[in-house]
Structure formats: structure tokens, C-alpha cells
Amino acid sequence: MNFPRLTFPLTVDFGDTEYWIREQGPFKYGAAVTAFFIGEDIGPVSNDGIPLMHKLEHQLQTFGSHLQPYAREREIDAATFLCPEGQAVGCSVCFAFHPTDGCTGIMTERYTFSSLHDFLFVELGKSILRGNAPRQCRLCGRWFLHEQGDRAMYCERIAPGEESKTCREAGARAVFEKKIQDEDTWKLYKRAYKKYYARYMKGNMSEADFKAWATQAAADRDAAIEQITPEIDAALKAQIIEQLREKLNRQ
Predict the structure, then answer these.
(1) E-assigned strands of the chain?
(2) What is the pLDDT confidence band of residue 182, given thresholds at 50, 70 and 90?
(3) Contact indicator for 117, 88 with CB cutoff of 8 Å
(4) Helix, strand, or coil here: 114?
(5) Taking 70 as the threshold, does the pLDDT of residue 112 lie above it?
(6) Of 243, 242, 240, 6, which Cα lies nearest the Cα of 120?
(7) What is the C-alpha separation between 199 and 217, in angstroms, rounded?
(8) Distance from the CA of 147 to the CA of which of 9, 133, 196, 205 falls in 20 to 30 A?
(9) What is the pLDDT of residue 178?
(10) pLDDT one-digit tens code per residue, 44-63
(11) What burial letters (b/e) apply to 57-96, b meaning 16+ CB within 10 Å?
(12) DSSP letters of 16-80?
């Protein structure tokens, strides 16, 4: 991420969607904490930084658990959740206009921090308020910045054991393969897709016909998946699977 190294006292202008550190920025909310989690030297700490990281992880799990920041689930600490004042930090706050290109500036909250600890606690809290949070990659275990609306569980670094494929690419493929292995509907769909794609590649099926088939096949597959619930009886499930087989091979 290459977050800049900070010196203190530190002045930060927090806007609605991004923030500035003196004249540097804008930065995304959560960028600083994520950089700290992955081991970047972004500022002075009183020790090796591990205790501070654990405290930030604790805050993240307590107040950001709805953002699923962890590859593993942890229980929420009730004491911290019910008495957040115990985690209060010290800083000064005022309102200010931050200069931006092409206008006089935008209204921001200007904070002055005396330590990296205080800045990271505030940055983390503001990022959670906006739906952002550091997240651990479910493949390599390293942290990356999860932004609001992003459902990715994998980072975009090169995956372990791969030369060029990212964790996001490798993880998505693994999920797809698991679906194919676990669900009869996906097995049928994959076999049918291979058959019709081979027809298209051999010139026995036009591109337009293949695309039309693929679109309808995906819709039929998804409709069958929605009908097959954990409570469905075996006879009805077999009937739905057979109907899907007929639809996928209708041409």
C-alpha cells in the first residue's frame, strides 16, 4: 500500500469520503490501519507494535464484526462493546476548510494527534462507520482493505504456490470447483456447458445460438438451485434435477 510514514504531532483533515494528512492525500478510510496490519512502518510505536495491533484487532472485531473483517470468527467482547469509554483516545478537534483543486476547499474535521496509537484508533473507527475495514485474505491470511459494498474475501496479491494468479483468482476458482463437486446442479451445468461449447468451437453451432443457450442455461441452473433447499425431500430433488437435465440439453 505504501502509506506515508507519519510524524507527530499529526494534523489530519477528515472529510465525508476521504481524508488528508497535511497536504498529502486523499486517503481511503481504513488505509492507515490496513498498512499498519501488513507491517508497513507508518509511524513511531513505543514497542514492536504487536500490542497495538492486538488492541486494534480487538476494536475491529467488537465494532466491525458486521463487516466480517476476519477469516475466522471471534466472540465480541461485551465489556468493550457496552463501555467503549474505556478505549477513549486523546486529540484536539476543530472544523476547517481543506483546499482542493478548482475550489476554495471542502469542510472537514481537523484532528491533531500526539501518537500513532490515537490516530489509528480514530481512523479505524471512522472507517467502520463508512463500511470499510481491514480484512484477512481467506487464502494467504494477509490483510487487505475491504471497502463498502465489496464482497471479496481474497486479496489481489500473488497466491501462495502460484506464479501469476492472485488470491482472488485462485480463491474464486476454488469456490467454483467446490460448488461443482458438492451440487448436482453445477455438475449438470458444467457437463452441458462443455458439450455446447465444443459444438460452437467445431462450427456446429453459431456464436449467437451458443450465447443464447449459455444465458438461458445459467438462468435454469440458478432457478433449480433456489428450489433445492436443505429441507427438500429426495424424490422432489431428483425431479428438479431431471427437469434441469432436460432443459440444459434441449438443443
Answers:
(1) 10-14, 19-21, 24-27, 91-100, 103-113, 133-136, 143-146
(2) low
(3) no
(4) coil
(5) yes
(6) 6
(7) 15
(8) 9
(9) 62
(10) 987 778 999 989 998 998 88
(11) bebbbbbbbebebbeeeeeeeeeeeeeeeeeeeebeeeee
(12) SS-EEETTEEEE-TTHHHHHHHTT---S--SSSSHHHHHHHHHHHHHHHGGG---SS-----HHH
| Residue found by looking up cell 432436460 in the block | 246
C-alpha cell at 127: 472507517
Q: Distance between CA 39 and CA 44 in Å, rounded?
A: 13
d(CA 9, CA 217): 61
Per the CB < 8 A criterion, the answer to whether 119 and 10 are in contact is yes
Residue carrying the nine cell digits 498529502: 24
Indicate the pTM of the whole model.
0.68
What's the one-letter identity of residue 23?
E
Could you report the per-residue pLDDT of 201-213, keeping only the tens digit for each? 999 999 999 989 9
The alpha carbon of 14 is separated from its chain's Cα centroid by a whole number of angstroms, namely 23
CA angle 75, 78, 83 (to 5 degrees): 145
How many residues are recorded in the chain?
251
Read off the C-alpha cell for 190.
458444467
Angle, vertex CA 161, rays to CA 156 and CA 166, nearest 5: 15
